[in-house]
Each structure stands twice: as C-alpha cells, then as structure tokens.
Amino acid sequence: MLSSVYREALWSRRGSLLLYVIGMGLLVGITVGVYPTVREGADTFTQLLESMPQGLMSMFGSSDAAELLTPAGFVNSRVNASIGAIVLTVFAISLGTAAIAGEEDRRTMDLILATPTPRRAIVLSRFAAMASMIGVVAFAILVVMVVANPIVDLGFSLPNMIASNFMLALLALVFGSLALAVGGLTGKRGVTLGVASGVTVATFFINGLAELVDWLQGPQELTPFYWLQRANPLSKGLTIEDTLIMLAVTVVFVALAVWGFERRDVAV
Amino acid sequence: MTAPIFLDGLTKFYGPIRGIEDLDLEIRQGEVFGFLGPNGAGKSTTISTILDFIRPTRGTATVLGLDSRRDSVAIHGKIGYLPGELAMYEKMTGRELLGYLSALRGVDTSRQVASLAERFDLDLDRRIRGYSSGNRQKVGLVQAFMHRPELLILDEPTNGLDPIVQQEFYALLREVSAEGRTVFLSSHILPEVERITDRAAIIRRGRLMVVAEIEELKRQAQHRLEMTFVSPADPEVFRALETVRSVAAVDRTITVTVAGSVDPVVKAAAAFEVENIVSHDGDLESAFLSYYSEDDDAE
Fold first, then answer.
1. CATH numbers and ranges of domains, chain B
2. Tens digits of per-residue pLDDT, B30-54?
3. CB–CB of B73 and A12 under 8 A?
4. Where are the domains of chain A?
C-alpha cells in the first residue's frame, strides 16, 4: 500500500515533472551555452561586475568577480546560487505542500485514510515521491551538464557535476520537507505555502545580504543556501559536512511531519 | 458477539464548541441502522471520530471489537466508508480511482466493481470532473461496497441519486444485511430512514435524543389529522381527548395533533357531519419534530 501511494503521487505529477525537467534543462543549457561569450568578454564583464554593489554579486554565489567568471563560478552563480535553486525549491515546496495540506484542502484525505493505510505511510510515501521527482530534475540538469561539458570546454569533473546536482537536490529537499512538516503539523495549505515560501525567501536574502550586513553573518550560517554556497561542489566536489547537515535537517522535518500528522485531527 | 459499533460516552469538542457529547450507542450485527439528524447535528463528527479521522475529547468507540484509536488501520481494512462531502481526485477516471483505492486495500475488486457499476449504470471510463453529482455519488458507493466489507459506514448515501438508482441502493442494503453484514447510515431524509432501516437514533445538537426500533418511533410519532366539517364543529370535544396534543380550529376545519392512537379522535369526529379527513402520516418527521420541541426549553 505504501508503493501505491508513492506511485500515485508520481503519476499524478507527471505533467509538472516533465515541465520542470524541460525548464531546468533549458535553463542550464542556456547558461552553459552563453558561457563562451562570457569567457571571451571576460575583461568587460569583470569591469561590469566590479562596478556592481557587493551585495548584488554575493546574491549570485560569490563576491569575487574573477571567481564568478570561471566556468564553475558562472554556472554555480546561475544554477546553484540563484534561479536554478529557486526554481527547484519552488517545485519541492509545491510537492511538499500537496503531500498532506493540499490533500486535506481538497478534502480527499478521508478516502485514503478510510483504507488500511497508516498515516505514517502516507507521509513517508509522499516524501519518497517528492525526493524522487526532485532527483529526476537534478538528474536532467546533470545530463545537460555532462553533454555540454566537452562542447563548451567547461572542464568540470564528473564527480563534481554529480556532487553539485546531488547537493542542489538536497537543498530543494530541505525546503520541500519543511513544507511537508508544516503540512503535517497544521494541515492548512495556505499556512504551509506561506511558511515554506517565506522561509525560503528569507533565508535566500539573509545568505545574499550577509556579505554586506555584519549582523546577518550569524544567521547566514543557518541558511541552506549558505551550506550549498560554502560547499561549492562544482569546484570542490561533495562535502560530507554540508551534505550531512542538509540530510539531518530533512530527517528532522520528515519526523515532524509524521509526528504532527499522526497526532492531530484531519480535515475531511 | 461483539457489536459492530459500540460507543461509550463518545465526546468531541472543538475547543469550547460541542461537536458531540456523551454518545452511548450499540449497533447490532446485520442491522441497517439509521443515524438521523438535521445538518450540523453531529452526524459526520460522530462518523469521523469512529473512523479516527478526528480524535475524541473523551469516551471510546469500539468497531468490530477493535479500539478506534489504537486499531484504526485494522478497522479500516474491514469497513467501507462513504463520505458525506464526497471529494475525489478530479483528474482520475472512475476506474482509476477505484483501482487506486483497491490497491490501498490490497484486494482485487475488479469483479465487484464491474457488477456494481452495472447495477448502478455507471460509466467508469470518464474522468471524475466530468461526472454529474449523481454519478460521483455512484462512484462513492462503489468504492464503499467493492471490497465486501463487514461494516458499511455511509454518510448521507442517497445524496444526488435519482430514484431508480436509489431503489437499486436500497436493494443492495437488503442484500448486505441478509448476509449478516452491518450498515450504519446517516441521513436527514426521514422517509428514507423509515423505509430502509431497522432501528434509528436521533441526534440533535451533538446529543443522542433517542435510540429505538423504527416501529417504536412510528408509534411514538405524532399524527396530524386535518378534519373538515360541513358546518363548524366544537374544538373542545377534541381537546378533551387523552391522546390529543393540540387543537386548532379555522372556519370549518379542525386540525389536531395526536400522539398514539387516532381512534378516539375519529370516533369523536363521527358525531359531526364530516366533509373530509386528511391524515398527515405518523412519519419520522413528526417524531423528529416532537424531539425537537421537547428539548427546546432546555437549551
């Protein structure tokens, strides 16, 4: 019965999954595709970047112009540190919200709960489905990178590309699991979407602005975006510490989701 | 033999607001039991608590000998449930939804589904969002019956069904009951409960007002007789009768409410020249209304 919930969760989202795969594939493809132009005009871009406020640059994952113009720095700035991470996180939050709170909002939860399916199994199956779908999108990005790597002469190693997309997926999974947790605890779709998106936006800006604002440097260390930025997997490969932190946070959120959903009244 | 449903002081408060309070009820195996009450009386709250969707503030519900909290998953394996506010996955076809719910139950229901769909004249290959409300309700009924559960808990089962399908549904209930399986159904439609159930409970504002055999409820029920005379009759004659509860006289028509036997009223009426007598039958609606009015002062 666990696998039925899992399969249904995947099947019902096949359309949006395909859109995210295409969208993220295009995003990364275009990013990598314009890199030769950036490389050729490096001097101009360096000047341009140096004239930009530091905070704005740090929003792209690095405040160092030279670093931003390396292949790793450039791709990282577009994919892991900004739009790529945000888009994948939005997908994760939509899945995490739909998993419990969305189902209660549509009043269909009682149909499932009236079958011999433990509440815990519903949460865990939907989590597994969310992780799988994020994994599929991350894998699509990896494929685009692997194909483009020799063509554009990016010089990424395969382990680093795998590490980068694995950690990007983990970042999205952290926020998706947050949505799952809020949904498990409250069962309210609006609250769940609000809290998960709010935390995403807040942590994104805390991380970005910490370069400029001293007092944000403490909180910055608590943001998943910082963990990914610090790990810089496209250059450094998989960092165990940051991977474990993100995994641990995810586990805590999933545990909260199960605990919350098992103990409360369900909206039917 | 364990009762299919046994409620012991079952109580649910939503904060300070009473959902249901101190429900004591025992359903017998193989009966069709009606759970009657107006909207908002606590019927769905009771059902949701029995099924462990919501948790009781105090008291317990025992279903097929199992505790509703501790053994909820095992209970769900043995029951069929039709929600009162039926919401379904709009993008699925009827067949897909039933397949999904069967998979969750881990049983092959394809034969039952085919036979029920035929009985209800339901096309399973259309998307739920394209179904009329009657067809949606049919899908809901099929999923409740398809795995041949020991106990059926049906919240307002005939909502939106056309009369022909209703007949088919009533027949299905009789079959289920004849097989020794039990049906607990809620309704606010009184003639329906009167017709298809063996016993009924009346719930009002979260409290059980009465639990009785349908025949007993009918006996207790008030009858209303509307008598028209050729020339005005004396209402005091009727007021004096023991079983008469109220008398109203307008022109040549006297309307009396009777609890119990109407015989003395008819005999008294015979003293006058009667033009017409209309009997508003002793249906549950009247029984129902009498339970309402009795309690109104207490609230």
1. 5-218 (3.40.50.300), 222-281 (3.30.70)
2. 999 999 988 889 999 999 999 999 9
3. no
4. 2-26+83-263
